[in-house]
Amino acid sequence: MKQLFNAFIAIAVISVILYVSINQLNSSQGYSGGNTLTIYNWGDYVDPELIARFEKETGIKVIYQTFDSNEAMMTKISQGGTTFDVAMPSEYAISKMKEDGLLIPLDHSKLPNLKNIDTRFMDLSFDPGNQYSIPYFWGTVGIVYNPAMLNGKKITSWNDLWDPEMKNKILLADGAREVMGMGLNSLGYSLNDTNEAHLQEAKAKLNTITPNVKAIVGDEIKMLLANEEAAAGVVWSGDASEIMGENEKLDYVVPEEGSNLWFDNMVIPKTAANREAAHQFINFMLEPDVAAQNAEYVGYSTPNKEGLAILPEEISGDERFYPDTETTEKLEVYDNLGKKMLAHYNELFLEFKMHRK
Ligand code: N2P
Fold it and tell me: Does the domain spanning 139-260+331-356 belong to CATH 3.40.190.10?
């Protein structure tokens, strides 16, 4: 009996030690649920002043981490290990994360500012009823270019980038869907195409653009283009707007063969430790003045109707970044192609990158 009692005491002591050290580990990494909020967002995708304002208004400490592709973000979240309270995936990633059970349904009663979002961006097919995600930014993929470095030439199509005169003058954003989409669209195929012959044709076509590609880069693409280190770049619209703010010689075009229309929404991953604060943060980002300040800072297009109304006309009236419904209807939203096809797109993109070496 005494032995049993001793064993019981030993187990109890070990459990307490384990519990305390795990908690210490969590809080030393800053990942305890307590009064902290861990946000996982794209690089350069929030005005840091707004994070400071949220911390001041709520007393919640924000831990801010970044990713540079939906694929990297999904891998990290599905591995668990790190607790993220709010993340900002794009639509096809949201659909996949929902499927994989990685998201929690949102409590709309805690998001009264949802009324500020333009209904055009609500209830889209990747998340009916916005059960799991709330609009953050939206935009297109296109080409930012410097006519002064191209003898005044105007770029209008993806195929212009294959022109031998573009030798070593192009930068590409480091995204599998974006680059594969460019290859597919340039051939007249859908950027959601899953036909193997079309995909191989797109990759073979991409290989032929290699001499024109100076580099495939992340967020530094903005600095390189603004500093005229390259004449053209395949970028997300908001990056283009920021670059053009730095260098007025540049222009942005959504290629005539078609391109991508995307939506980045805020979600709460299943592993969130502080769901209450996560809702508080999402609601804060939906305040009209917050949404407007954030849009002005990052250069991306806000889905917040009330926020848009207080932005200067030179921003809200710029059709390159706020295209009307007629224009956006001609663009394609990425479908969730499923695990296998997504992996195949990544593989083909990687092969293209290797081909450059
Ligand atoms: C910001 C990246 C925005 C990603 N640097 C568009 N989905």
Answer: yes
